[in-house]
Design a protein that fits this description.
The complex is a heterodimer of chains A (100) and B (484).
Chain A (H helix, E strand, L loop, with lengths): L3 H21 L3 H26 L3 H31 L13
Helix pairs in contact in A: 1-2, 2-3
Chain B lengths: L7 H24 L5 H21 L4 E3 L4 E3 L1 H27 L7 H16 L4 H19 L6 H32 L4 H8 L7 H18 L7 H8 L2 H24 L9 H20 L5 H22 L2 H29 L16 H4 L1 H15 L5 H15 L3 H27 L14 H19 L2 H14 L1
Helix pairs in contact in B: 1-2, 1-4, 2-3, 3-4, 3-10, 3-13, 3-18, 3-19, 4-5, 4-10, 5-6, 5-10, 6-7, 6-8, 6-9, 9-10, 9-12, 10-12, 10-13, 11-12, 11-17, 12-13, 12-16, 12-17, 13-15, 13-16, 13-18, 13-19, 15-17, 16-18
Classes of the chains: A mainly alpha (100), B mainly alpha (484).
Chain lengths: 100, 484
């Protein structure tokens, strides 16, 4: 059996990639994908812990997170479409009407 | 397989809100464009029934769903705040949406769903349920922030709120994973039992609580996670800005009080120091940047960041007295801010787009409309913390709780911060009363009936809590006992 630490390291790496993606990427869709990556890293960690502990709680939580991620995707993509209709661009640098 | 024993009476407040939301949502397409306002009236009727249900559940202090749903006085207190906030927002919105020609019925069910999410959030000490409540609330609010979908600013507010909110969700969930991994449970009480008394605290628990802190820091807009708040508040429709500053903030703090003040505070080292630094940074940054704002919504956004800083004091102190003071503070702040945003929404609705949100718009307002001017003055004084208003009482009990535990430096900083804040709150008052407008003053629409009722309620409540805080404070105190 693969030890728990391996899963956690992979989850940590995926989470970090997602976090860096949110900060570095300029396209809103890419940022959104990076956020999904962070959620999936959390799912992986949750399942790994759940297996390690022999408890089902983590599995339940993962289903909840997947549902929430789907709801967020639906709302998020509609907001992105509304934004795109208004300004013909999905570049986060151009969303700059309000600062300071 | 047997059906679990569910206490429906205990669930009734949140169930009523949820069912009203579902029914009104289904009703919207059948109403036709001209009659969308029916949804608003059904919504506030549903909310008042829910408020009645809340009043019936006070003092029960029971749990259901195997301890996942808590019906203690703490939940009832906060549920009351959320329901009143939603009702006042609906009263403010009816005329606002009509004047902005954005009358879509979906607006009201979304407010109800957000309220439902907040109630779930405040009614559990289980991380899974808190997470679900948080998301029900947030997803509805993302849509509401972008509700004026043809306005550039509104969509911009929505996208910023959404991206940073979802980013914060990532941290929250990852944090929950670590806490669960160490303790094997999502229940805060179970987490404390598993972690307490061990000589060295598990590294994973520290990582987990730090990640949770980041996630909730985003939600309450604590420095350094506050950057979304001013943009989201400025761009969102004015009634929604008021709602966002009152409800979700109270909900996030309710969850934080449950998790950190009652929970992790004693088990994780250095957490208190961390809260100290975040509280001081939040109030100072919020107040200082608010000084140079010219848009009233943006100014109140920074003010709401500063107020989050004051409330964080309760998490530093961590006693039951401080927690009940924070509950009273959140009630006072919610009513005051909603009241202020009623006036702001009314002034804002005089123009098609967002021309009427700068502070200069308010020049000479009090001379033309003395009652509106006086109401806004009262709310500004309450935000600044002058007696005899609710804001003063909130600050007073909170600072007193901190001083009794010996946090002198923190309170000196907080009081200095309140002094700074007086300057920008009174700037609005000075504009309204003492400045001559160049040319014609801005035309403010007449106050519609529902807004009149809501405004009178907010004024009365702010004064009542300011003059007679004892009853409210006792209720808040009792509720905290329930949470422990």
């Amino acid at each position: 059996m693969v030890p728990l630490e391996y899963y956690l390291v992979v989850a940590g790496i995926i989470f970090t990639i997602g976090m860096i993606g949110v900060i570095v990427a300029r396209n809103i869709i890419i940022i959104f994908m990076s956020i999904e990556l962070m959620l999936n890293a959390a799912n992986l960690a949750m399942i790994a812990f759940s297996r390690n502990l022999g408890s089902m709680g983590g599995h339940v939580m993962v289903f909840m997170i997947m549902t929430v991620a789907a709801a967020e995707a639906a709302v998020g993509l509609s907001i992105i479409i509304a934004l795109f209709r208004n300004r013909d661009s999905a570049n986060i640098d151009e969303v700059n009407l309000m600062k300071w | 397989m047997s059906f679990p024993n569910v206490d429906f009476a205990l669930l009734s407040p949140s169930l009523i809100v949820c069912i009203t939301a579902l029914l009104t949502m289904l009703l919207v397409p059948f109403l036709g464009e001209k009659r969308q306002v029916v949804v608003a009236h059904l919504s506030w009727i549903g909310l008042s029934i829910a408020l009645f249900a809340v009043s019936q559940q006070i003092g029960k202090n029971a749990t259901t769903f195997g301890g996942m749903f808590l019906g203690d006085d703490f939940s009832q207190f906060f549920s009351g705040i959320f329901i009143v906030a939603a009702m006042l927002t609906i009263f403010t919105s009816i005329d606002y949406l009509r004047r902005k020609e954005n009358e879509h019925g979906e607006y009201y069910p979304l407010i109800l769903f957000a309220t439902y999410g907040m109630m779930v959030m405040a009614s559990s000490s289980n991380l899974l349920v808190i997470f679900l409540g948080l998301e029900i609330m947030s997803v509805s609010l993302y849509v509401l922030a972008g509700f004026a979908r043809t306005e550039l600013k509104s969509t911009e507010a929505a996208i910023k709120y959404f991206l940073l909110g979802a980013f914060a969700t990532g941290f929250t969930v990852f944090g929950i994973a670590f806490v669960y991994g160490v303790t094997g449970t999502f229940d805060v009480a179970g987490i404390i039992n598993a972690a307490f008394g061990q000589s060295n605290v598990d590294t994973f628990l520290i990582i987990g609580s730090a990640l949770l802190l980041i996630g909730f820091g985003f939600k309450v807009a604590a420095v350094p996670f506050h950057m979304w708040a001013p943009d989201a508040y400025e761009g969102a429709p004015s009634p929604i800005t008021g709602f966002m500053s009152a409800g979700p903030k109270a909900a996030a703090f309710a969850a934080m009080l449950r998790i950190f003040s009652v929970g992790f505070g004693s088990t994780v080292p250095h957490l208190q120091t961390l809260f100290w630094i975040v509280a001081v940074a939040t109030m100072t940054v919020g107040n200082i940047i608010a000084l140079r704002q010219n848009n009233i919504k943006r100014m109140l956004a920074f003010s709401s960041i500063a107020h989050a800083g004051y409330i964080l004091i309760a998490l530093v102190v961590g006693t039951g007295e401080a927690s009940s003071a924070a509950a009273l503070y959140l009630l006072a702040y919610a009513l005051t801010n909603l009241g202020a945003f009623m006036v702001i929404a009314l002034v804002d609705s005089g123009a098609k787009h967002d021309e009427f949100t700068s502070i200069d718009t308010y020049t000479g307002l009090a001379r033309k409309r003395p009652f509106l001017g006086l109401a806004l003055t009262l709310f500004m004084l309450s935000l600044a913390g002058f007696p005899p208003t609710a804001g003063f009482m909130g600050k007073f009990v909170l600072f007193k709780a901190a001083v009794s535990q010996g946090f002198y430096v923190l309170i000196v900083i907080a009081v200095l911060n309140s002094l700074v804040s007086v300057f920008y709150y009174l700037r609005v008052v000075v504009k309204m009363f003492m400045t001559e407008p160049d040319g014609q003053p801005v035309e403010v629409p007449a106050v519609p009936v529902f807004l009149m009722v809501a405004l009178a309620f907010a004024v009365a409540a702010v004064l009542l809590i300011g003059v007679y805080p004892q009853g409210w404070f006792n209720f808040a105190g009792l509720s905290i006992l329930g949470a422990n």
